[in-house]
Design brief:
The chain is mainly α and about 220 residues long. The longest helix has 17 residues.
Length: about 220
């Protein structure tokens, strides 16, 4: 299956139905002035949280805490008040302050731009680290969240059980020049068209090449 046709077909489908809003991380990449640090913190906050909530919270948070040093000095209760609308805000409040302290003291306020160092930070797994590489540094990586995992399996690009395996398989099969597009496009498609329940197959322009669609409509 041609990945360029998949990506273009996804965008064409979404634009024909309703132009999708930017993902939270793409919006941070485009409008925030905090650079890599805002992407790192925003990605941690986005876990198990709707993009709309993440975007709102980040705007307030980064208007008050503009860098690692200022956030490292914040009180947990103050952060909780700002991010209480998102999932697991108690844990995330402590986590982002902890990460800010490490970035400020160990890395002199600069977010590392390599995978191994990023995943050594507390609460930062491969998906978060890859998001930072893609959205903060525009380094080729494939962040695999629930949307990327689901759609990759539905299309038949991979046959995997967990996101980590999906990432490895996609890296083998997809030319590196497309890696920067995968997460952003697949996430928008997963939010708007190829939903977990009742995917909108009727409007999908890549369904003829979709394993899920073919299986569902097999006579």
């Amino acid at each position: 299956m041609n990945i360029e046709k998949i990506l273009r077909g996804m965008m064409s489908t979404m634009n024909s139905v309703k132009p999708p809003r930017m993902t939270a991380l793409r919006e941070l990449h485009e409008v925030e002035t905090g650079g890599p640090f805002s992407i790192l913190i925003g990605t941690i906050l986005s876990a198990r949280t709707k993009d709309e909530s993440t975007t709102k919270v980040c705007k307030v948070l980064f208007s008050k805490y503009k860098n690692a040093k200022s956030l490292s000095k914040a009180k947990v209760k103050d952060i909780e008040k700002i991010i209480k609308s998102i999932g697991f805000y108690h844990v995330k409040s402590k986590r982002i302050i902890e990460v800010a302290k490490i970035i400020d003291k160990k890395y002199k306020g600069k977010v590392p731009d390599d995978l191994d160092t990023l995943v050594s930070l507390p609460g930062v797994g491969r998906k978060t680290a890859n998001c930072v590489l893609v959205y903060a540094f525009e380094k080729p990586a494939i962040p695999v969240d629930i949307h990327v995992h689901r759609i990759s399996n539905r299309l038949g690009l991979v046959d995997t059980k967990i996101p980590e395996d999906t990432e490895q398989e996609l890296m083998k099969k997809i030319p590196k020049k497309y890696w920067l597009e995968i997460n952003d496009t697949f996430v928008m498609y997963g939010q708007n068209i190829c939903k977990p329940i009742s995917p909108m197959c009727s409007v999908c322009k890549i369904k003829r090449n979709c394993k899920y669609y073919k299986t569902k409509n097999a006579s």
